[in-house]
Amino acid sequence: MENKGKVLMQKYEFGRLLGQGNFAKVYHARNIETSQSVAVKVIEKEKVLKVGMIDQTKREISGMSLVKHTNILELYEVMASKSKIYFVMEYAKGGELFNKLSKGKLREDVARKYFQQLISAVDFCHSRGVYHRDLKPENLLLDENGILKVSDFGLSALTECKHQDGLLHTTCGTPAYVAPEVINRKGYDGAKADIWSCGVILYVMLAGYLPFHDTNLIAIYRKISKADYKFPNWFSPEVTKLLSRILTPNPKARISIEKIMTNPWFRKGFNSKPVHNKVEKALVPVDIDAVFSSEANNNAFEAKKDMAKLTNLNAFDIISLSSGFDLSGLFVIPIFRLGLTNRIVTCYYN
Ligand code: ATP
Ligand code: MG
What we know:
Layout: E1 7-8, E2 12-20, E3 24-31, E4 37-44, H1 45-48, E5 66-67, E6 75-80, E7 84-90, E8 95-96, H2 108-126, E9 140-142, E10 148-150, H3 157-168, H4 180-183, H5 190-207, H6 217-226, H7 237-246, H8 257-262, H9 264-267, E11 278-279, E12 284-287, H10 289-292, E13 308-310, H11 315-320, E14 346-349
Antiparallel strand pairs: 1-2, 2-3, 3-4, 4-7, 5-11, 6-7, 6-13, 8-9, 9-10, 12-14
């Protein structure tokens, strides 16, 4: 394993590879000082960065506050070398939620518990103007106590590209969790698109299989667009009713998060006590050019001074690094095909 045993920033000793996505590899690592386990997501800049597009309008974002939520994977710090970006984040020891499904569908009360946690996380982010846009099993992790942790909140700028590719290359996987309006590229409401994905996730937990499946992508797209699916006979009438309201193709007619949270099936056993705390931190603006272009050492495992470091950021900060909560400025990826503009390149450290 290429990184095993290496020490990042004299602080994190790399262990085994936990998983691999389209843009990143995720490693287990240990904080040498505290022995705390963390996960480090390593992104090859080259894969996501279009050189020459860094010189964009810069804007400072002030008065940012750091927020945490029990069901959102915490991002501890972000570092960058010349060629890579490192996201040091909470380690989800329990792995992917959907590994549980390999043993079969979940009981309704178990599925409801996860769905409640998922909706809590999504509601929390939506109320702050942050949309996930890539809710899918790989991004639903569990900690050592079996608590759901949603990962990659706000990192969806990276996956926009993949969705685009997904239309062109079937190897990019199934769009099974994506809302019809996203597939149709009509321009969409991020909140409603996330709700659709939550509905597909709930369906899969209860059924043990996808609501929309077929032998080819076009057929799957067609089914999604028409919400062409059936409920297995073991789904209760209450959950069937709720899912019908979520898996509604017209986003305007689709149920809102607020309504989901007042739904009787959803509310059963729901612990609605506050699950987040807010920590205010002083943030000092710094030019992100240092991170992207420049003198940062090519070898990420070099001394601290060679690394550009963005410290004490969580997912919201990363999102906030770019205007409109759009990461396309931070990760300057070839999104021009999607007609998105590149944005802000100002960020903070302390
Ligand atoms: P995408 O390319 O859309 O991000 P992905 O979510 O599968 O796809 P990554 O986010 O790179 O890819 O993660 C790869 C895998 O690593 C995940 O599927 C998960 O199994 C594992 N993983 C990611 N983050 C953590 C974490 N904090 N703790 C434990 N395992 C993780
Ligand atoms: Mg992920």
